[in-house]
Write a structure and sequence with these properties.
The protein is mainly alpha-helical. It contains ten helices and two strands.
């Protein structure tokens, strides 16, 4: 049973590679755009969610590729910035409700993680085992959190999140929402169906656990 405010479960690579055309600015009669799909998903249409995945995934991949082409090899991608840009490009903000925004970011959070991992693996393979790709953890949280954040090897982070999934999959979804999508505490709480105080507490625990794992 899919709830409008539920965070999507992990999505297969196969489904994310289907080809659909975003149509928020398409002529009348074209396939539904992201805004329409978000609203339909919020009304309980699972098919709308399935159609949404490849659109968002392709946009995030294209943005990441552009960023990597324009910057030096040592450039640090900012996942949250890419997700927000995708939202601005794909969604008609005059029509999308707040809940639709939360839904979009919940989808994009998981897809952005996959995009960054794909890029990191490609770069590492091209360098024959070298050139670990980094992302910044400074895109979310308080000023104190941003001050203490360091660049992180995205493959190491993905592996750590994989280990955390075995222990506590809800914390992984929380990390994806706060880190990859940049949702606020209130938005993350809404997406997960928990209180803001729970998000604050679990986010702090998850960050401590990840720092410990990444320093091993």
């Amino acid at each position: 049973m899919w709830r409008p405010n539920a965070v999507p479960s992990p999505i297969s690579h196969e489904s994310s590679r289907e080809s659909l055309t975003p149509a928020d600015s398409a002529p009348a009669g074209a396939a539904p755009g992201v805004t329409e799909l978000l609203l339909a998903w919020g009304a309980g249409d699972r098919a709308a969610f399935d159609a949404l995945i490849p659109i968002v995934y392709r946009e995030l991949r294209q943005q990441a590729q552009r960023a990597l082409r324009q910057e030096s090899l040592g450039h640090t991608l900012q996942p949250t910035a890419l997700v927000h840009e995708a939202y601005l490009r794909l969604v008609d903000q005059s029509r999308a409700r707040w809940q639709a925004r939360t839904q979009f970011f919940a989808v994009a959070a998981q897809l952005m993680r996959r995009v960054l991992v794909d890029h990191a693996r490609t770069r590492r393979s091209a360098k024959r085992g070298g050139g670990a790709h980094h992302v910044t953890l400074s895109e979310c949280g308080s000023a104190a959190e941003r001050a203490e954040a360091n660049d992180v090897d995205v493959l190491a982070l993905d592996e750590a999140l994989g280990r955390l999934t075995i222990l506590d999959p809800v914390k992984v979804r929380l990390v994806e929402l706060r880190y990859f999508a940049g949702l606020t505490v209130a938005e993350t709480a809404e997406a997960l169906g928990v209180s803001p105080s729970t998000v604050d507490r679990e986010w702090a625990v998850a960050r401590r656990w990840l720092r410990r794992e990444l320093e091993r």
